[in-house]
Design brief:
CATH class of the largest domain: Mainly Beta
Order of helices and strands: HEHEEEHEEEEEEEE
CATH topology of the largest domain: Porin
Strand content: over 45%
Number of strands: 12
CATH architecture of the largest domain: Beta Barrel
Number of domains: 2
Largest sheet: 8 strands, antiparallel, barrel
Oligomer: single chain
């Protein structure tokens, strides 16, 4: 009988309860959101909270800042020193501290903590309530008939609910493609819009999605010294759909390293022709691939 009671008690202890509170974790906190919510559910048990209850974890110089808001409950906040323990230990410590904070607001209301005691995210750091990131990157695009183009640009991403995001990047690239009668200089200025999904764990975020890249291209011919050919230049619009896969790794607080690999197919091609013939010297046409690496910051 005693063994049965202990067994039943152990099941009750390890069975995760559903945490009835919306949890927002800044990437710089660097813990698994799924593991934290599971542990928080265990700590809260069957506690009943308002539907709009919201718990936020953000970075602070002294550790991790916790803040709790709910209808009919006073705003509560505290800072938890977490040290340099591993992600699992930090998640357990923060789940316990968060449960205590929620219980304090739910059972023993206290006056709101002064704004100086914690540093919640300022309104300017949100975009309609969603967090965003800004990156600078270097890139290399390869076209079968134009060779490699090198350059860089900037990108911005807005993180939406249900693990989705919208991103936009602008970049400039340059390359030179050799031909029998000389070479063709290629300059490309383009913008890309993507809709992606992402999955997060610990300090890593995996991204995958698709979109469309469009812009302008300038092709200029440079004849070889012994050629009678005269060089010319043209501007044209080019673009096409893309698929992308990449990721981000949090380096320190809000700073992150980013990388991506894109593949696309040109639907609006540009051709650099030799004279009045149909002989092509360089084309932005057909499939292409792009590799990007850079650094960014979360806001």
């Amino acid at each position: 009988m005693v063994r049965f009671f202990i067994f039943a008690l152990s099941i009750a202890v390890v069975s995760p309860a559903q945490a009835r509170v919306a949890v927002v974790i800044d990437p710089c906190v660097a813990i698994s959101s799924g593991e934290f919510e599971r542990l928080l559910g265990i700590e809260l048990g069957s506690r009943s909270l308002p539907e709009d209850a919201r718990l936020q974890l953000s970075c602070d110089e002294a550790g991790v800042a916790l803040s709790f808001r709910a209808t009919g409950r006073p705003f509560s906040a505290r800072v938890v020193p977490t040290g340099n323990g591993d992600a699992a230990m930090r998640a357990r410590l923060l789940a316990l501290a968060s449960a205590e904070l929620v219980a304090q607001a739910d059972e023993h209301p206290s006056p709101p903590i002064a704004p100086s005691a914690v540093k919640p995210a300022a309104p300017a750091e949100t975009f309609f309530g969603r967090r965003f990131a800004l990156d600078g990157f270097g890139s290399m695009s390869y076209f079968a008939r134009a060779g490699a183009l090198f350059g860089g640009g900037i990108s911005a991403a807005v993180y939406l609910p249900r693990h989705t995001e919208i991103s936009l990047d602008v970049r400039a690239e340059h390359g030179r493609h050799g031909a029998n009668v000389g070479a063709v200089a290629i300059d490309v200025l383009s913008a890309t819009a993507n809709l992606s999904g992402h999955y997060e764990w610990s300090r890593f975020r995996l991204r995958f999605g698709g979109g469309f890249r469009i812009g302008g291209a300038r092709l200029e011919g440079h004849p070889s010294p012994d050629s009678a050919t005269v060089g010319n230049a043209l501007w044209a619009v080019w673009g096409g759909p893309i698929v992308t896969v990449g990721g981000q790794v949090v380096i320190w607080r809000r700073l992150h390293f980013s990388f991506a690999l894109d593949g696309g197919y040109v639907l609006l091609p540009v051709h650099g022709l030799f004279g009045q013939t149909s002989t092509s010297l360089a084309d932005l046409d057909g499939p292409w691939v792009t590799a990007k690496i850079g650094f960014g910051i979360y806001f």
